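Fill-in record for Helix-turn-helix transcriptional regulator.
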Amino acid sequence: MEFRFKSSEYDGEELIKSFKNDFETTDLSEEEYLDFKKGVIGSVKETHINKVFVIFQNYVTSTINNHTLHVVQNEPVFLLQFVFQGDFTISLDKDTDNVYSLKKHKYNLFYVPASNHLFTYRDQKKEILNIYFTESYLKEKMGSYFLDNNPDFLNAKKEKKIFSIFHQGMHLNVRLRNIVYEFLNCSFNGIIKKTYFESKLTELILIALNTPQSQPSNLKKEDKESLIMIEDYIKSHLNEELNIEKLSQQAGFNTSKFKTLFKELYGKPVFKYITHLRIEKAIELISKNDYSISEASYEVGYKNPQHFTVAFKKKLGYLPSQLIKD
């Protein structure tokens, strides 16, 4: 199995990745790419474990123009995508009649035949988790019923067309976000890390494809857009004091309505969700950017590092010092 990636943002030649059938491997391999063109900041990280190939895109472009990723693959695959930032479309090369889109805070499972296809990104910020696997792996985890009783999928497979399992994409709820961040911020090494990755990916796939979504049916579009705007604001101001009154005012709600709708959309009260985001950010700063415990705690809004340590231990069951590499 072979993939060829060529990005309008990557400063290099076409990237070629070769795999055994069904992405089989006995090892865990990880790579990180930082060689972007001028004006692009961030990284693309790859993880390959047995039967699964993962790409995490996390970068920002200085221009607002659309960017493309051209992919050529010689075997059909399934692609499970989780979009945190960066709306995009996927289509077969030069096929303008069958274009699928996926927006921020959504996920979907795509069947992608052996083909030349394009990802077109419409936002400057891209934060997308891409999980590739084959039909045999999906049936191993989900059984044959999931695919064999879907006539639309069977027809797309026969006609070698891209197909999305969920028509408009599914809501990326808090439970799935937690699993993704646990996967991305794993602090284990060696065989333990490999086993952890395998278990987390299995958990992520099973829950994403089985759990009925709790996306509120009575939430107005404009209310949801206001809450998503507030979530983006919170993420970019974690080092500041955040209070209900200020956030409610920015969202255009009274405090009671804001708290009710926020919990309805995100599954947690506002301050529990803020704590969740702060700890996620701190994990990244400590484990990937070599921040000290004190530096990370101040960066995510804790004036007292001890308070941060207590909150961290309460949520995750271990101390943040365990993230520091020897």
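KEY FINDING: The chain has two domains: 2-172, 221-323.
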